[in-house]
Design a protein that fits this description.
alpha+beta, four-stranded antiparallel beta sheet, two-stranded antiparallel sheet, 15 helices, 10% strand, elongated
């Protein structure tokens, strides 16, 4: 068998792919793609072929999928037993299976050692994420789906939150349990027209107040990233080096000399906005919708942190912020430093 042709159509997001491998010239090929999703989809399609199943399209389920691996010389479909897919970082891979692939004993032991270390770290991180999120079942798949749109792409999802983890963003979300916000009852209410209209009204009033603020500036500085600025200045010893910051207030320019002064100034401006009578009235319309037993925990979050309302207009983005906050709280950067060094790209063929 000198040449193999692979044809894929509507397979896990791959719209149309036709490629021929000349095995007479080379025995090994590298498939390059600018994102991890295509490589994962390719591997998933080959895995299905190897076990006699037909690939599908997870998003557009009505589309008819095609997957052919052909021996070019004969025109026949390749025997499925001749296709073998290694599912990287899959906990179901036992060392006995790896030993059939890696004949060299030292390489096999090295692989198993690295694999075991990664799995141990992953287990520690998942345990921390479970405590922070309140999710008892299916956490790994939910995390991967929310971030990478693929329940099997844990490490791709981890990498995609690189900047959030490095910057230590979203500290204000660390104590918000995912399970309390994204449960069936709460999401059903958030999806009603009345609540959506109320949220839109709240956002409109809030944006108007931000526009009028002398401290905040729409699209540049708001309640969320103001806290990030304070953290960045603190982490870099800005005030300890005797530097100061000038801020705009209703009374004019004000010099800030310490981190505590800056925190108080930001909190004062937040309170001025969030306690605005029109905004409070709008908040109450939303608040009263969540007074039943099933949504009580979520309502308690709103009562203690009404700024959470500003995130409810974009639930997918809120999910990413919560996961980012949990990763920072659980020191993911220390557990998996390789994920945030240089241009590291995890193998996502599982």
């Amino acid at each position: 068998m000198d040449k193999v042709r692979i044809s894929l159509k509507h397979c896990y997001g791959i719209k149309d792919l036709n490629i021929e491998f000349d095995l007479a010239a080379e025995k090994m090929f590298v498939v390059y793609a600018p994102n991890g999703t295509m490589k994962t989809s390719f591997a998933e399609s080959m895995r299905d072929y190897s076990i006699g199943e037909k690939p599908s399209d997870r998003v557009y389920k009505s589309r008819i999928s095609e997957c052919e691996v052909v021996n070019v010389a004969t025109g026949d479909l390749l025997n499925k037993e001749k296709v073998f897919v290694i599912q990287s970082l899959d906990e179901k891979y036992e060392s006995a299976k790896i030993s059939t692939l890696l004949v060299n004993e030292s390489l096999r032991k090295e692989y198993e050692s690295i694999y075991a270390a990664i799995n141990e770290k992953k287990g520690i991180l998942l345990e921390g994420l479970q405590k922070a999120s309140g999710i008892k079942k299916g956490l790994e798949e939910m995390f991967a789906m929310d971030i990478a749109q693929d329940p099997k792409d844990f490490f791709t999802a981890l990498l995609r939150l690189k900047s959030e983890v490095q910057d230590g963003r979203y500290a204000e979300f660390q104590k918000i349990a995912y399970e309390s916000v994204f449960n069936e009852k709460v999401e059903a209410l958030l999806d009603t027209k009345e609540v959506k209209d109320n949220l839109q009204e709240y956002m409109k009033i809030y944006e108007s107040l931000i526009q009028e603020s002398t401290f905040f500036k729409r699209g540049v500085l708001n309640h969320a990233n103001a806290a990030d600025i304070v953290k960045s200045l603190k982490d870099n010893g800005y005030f300890k080096a005797d530097h100061t910051v000038n801020i705009n207030t209703a009374e004019g320019k004000k010099e800030i000399k310490t981190e505590k002064e800056l925190e108080r100034a930001i909190q004062k401006e937040k309170d001025n906005i969030l306690n605005d009578p029109d905004l409070v009235k709008s908040f109450e319309k939303i608040d009263k919708k969540f007074k039943n037993k099933d949504t009580k925990v979520f309502r308690d979050y709103l009562d203690s942190n009404s700024a959470l309302l500003l995130e409810l207009g974009n639930l997918p983005r809120l999910k990413q912020k919560l996961w980012g906050a949990y990763l920072v709280a659980n020191k993911a950067q220390q557990l998996f430093p390789e994920c945030w060094q240089g241009d590291f790209v995890p193998d996502t063929s599982n």
